């Protein structure tokens, strides 16, 4: 079977490998569409993602839609081979007192397509893979497999929304129009936000933001955000200037959720508004069980397919990664098996 591998920095290949065999606690699936995430791009460009360094050829991909290769029992129901499914990529770690309801931040968990541990936790860019049945979700009626590959990044956005609380009637800014920001913006519209604006430094992703329902867009390379305006801000860029701008744009009493991942280094930030406006600043990491809500929102919101800008067959995976690196011409790029 075909498997995509990243052996190290700047190395990408498609190899032939033996088909996996599942034990009694797992099931074999056939991935169909896999989204290229920022972490996948880092592994290829740098040979690492944060502190996770490639020590063996890594199969990337944690944004996975698939079909069952065999019959399975999912959520207590018998599900036949061939059924389309989405994959929850996490194995939660060691439960800690005080955060029993936050498994996404329990230590020692793992995630598909990650080099955090050795042996690595290989991902979904493969013709077949083995997963636990509890990681599978049968797709809602009418949801296509390509759109289902958006469930993981949408779940990240929905987790941030969950931490922020009720969004109905709120004026909301999404800072950063990458795939997570775009999907979060579309979800905020569907969940009843009074107004959703999106900011970025590029026009192309802002055009997609309009297509998924954003009422206003701001190219912050050319114009400033309105000050003291937004009840909620979802900061999805992870860049210091964007964070500083978010605090200025937040209204008195606002909540800012940090969704974009930050580098582990000292950077200058202007957070002076946090005191005078009594801003609540919340961190958000991956997700818990929001994938079920994500799949239903995708099924109910066809406009979110606009986030998918390119689909490449696995034989052209190098082209897929090259395009995915360029935010001026791509939002979410999928690899198809």
TrEMBL record:
It holds the Pfam family ADH_N. GO terms for molecular function: metal ion binding; oxidoreductase activity. It comes from the Bacteria. Its cofactor is Zn(2+). The keyword Calcium does not apply. InterPro entries: ADH-like_C, ADH-like_N, GroES-like_sf, NAD(P)-bd_dom_sf. Gene3D superfamilies: Medium-chain alcohol dehydrogenases, catalytic domain, NAD(P)-binding Rossmann-like Domain. Residues 24-140 form the Alcohol dehydrogenase-like N-terminal domain. Keywords: Metal-binding, Oxidoreductase, Zinc. Residues 179-299 form the Alcohol dehydrogenase-like C-terminal domain. Belongs to the zinc-containing alcohol dehydrogenase family. This is L-idonate 5-dehydrogenase. The lineage of its organism: Bacteria, Bacillati, Actinomycetota, Actinomycetes, Bifidobacteriales.
């Amino acid at each position: 079977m075909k498997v995509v591998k990243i052996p190290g920095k700047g190395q990408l290949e498609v190899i032939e490998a033996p088909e996996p065999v599942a034990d009694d606690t797992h099931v074999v699936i056939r991935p169909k569409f896999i989204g290229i995430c920022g972490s996948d791009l880092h592994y290829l460009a740098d040979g690492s993602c944060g502190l996770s360094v490639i020590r063996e050829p890594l199969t990337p991909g944690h944004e996975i839609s698939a079909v069952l290769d065999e019959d399975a029992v999912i959520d207590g129901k018998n599900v036949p081979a061939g059924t389309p499914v989405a994959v929850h990529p996490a194995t939660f770690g060691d439960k800690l007192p005080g955060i029993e309801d936050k498994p996404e931040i329990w230590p020692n968990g793992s995630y598909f397509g990650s080099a955090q541990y050795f042996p690595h936790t290989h991902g979904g860019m493969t013709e077949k893979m083995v997963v636990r049945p509890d990681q599978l979700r049968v797709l809602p009626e009418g949801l296509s497999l390509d759109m289902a590959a958006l469930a993981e990044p949408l779940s990240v956005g929905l987790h941030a929304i969950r931490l922020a609380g009720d969004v109905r009637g709120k004026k909301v800014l999404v800072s950063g129009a990458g795939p997570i920001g775009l999907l979060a913006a579309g979800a905020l519209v569907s969940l009843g936000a009074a107004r959703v604006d999106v900011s970025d430094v590029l026009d192309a992703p802002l055009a997609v933001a309009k297509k998924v329902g954003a009422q206003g867009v701001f190219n912050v390379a050319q114009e400033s955000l309105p000050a003291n305006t937004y009840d909620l801000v979802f900061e999805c860029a992870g860049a210091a200037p964007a964070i500083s701008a978010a605090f200025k744009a937040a209204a008195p009493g606002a909540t800012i959720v940090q969704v974009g991942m930050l580098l582990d280094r000292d950077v200058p930030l202007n957070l002076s508004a946090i005191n005078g406006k009594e801003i609540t600043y919340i961190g958000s990491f991956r997700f818990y069980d929001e994938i079920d809500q994500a799949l239903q929102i995708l099924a109910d919101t066809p406009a979110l397919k606009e986030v998918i800008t390119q689909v490449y067959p696995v034989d052209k995976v190098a082209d897929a990664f090259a395009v995915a690196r360029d935010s001026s011409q791509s939002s979410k790029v999928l690899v198809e098996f």
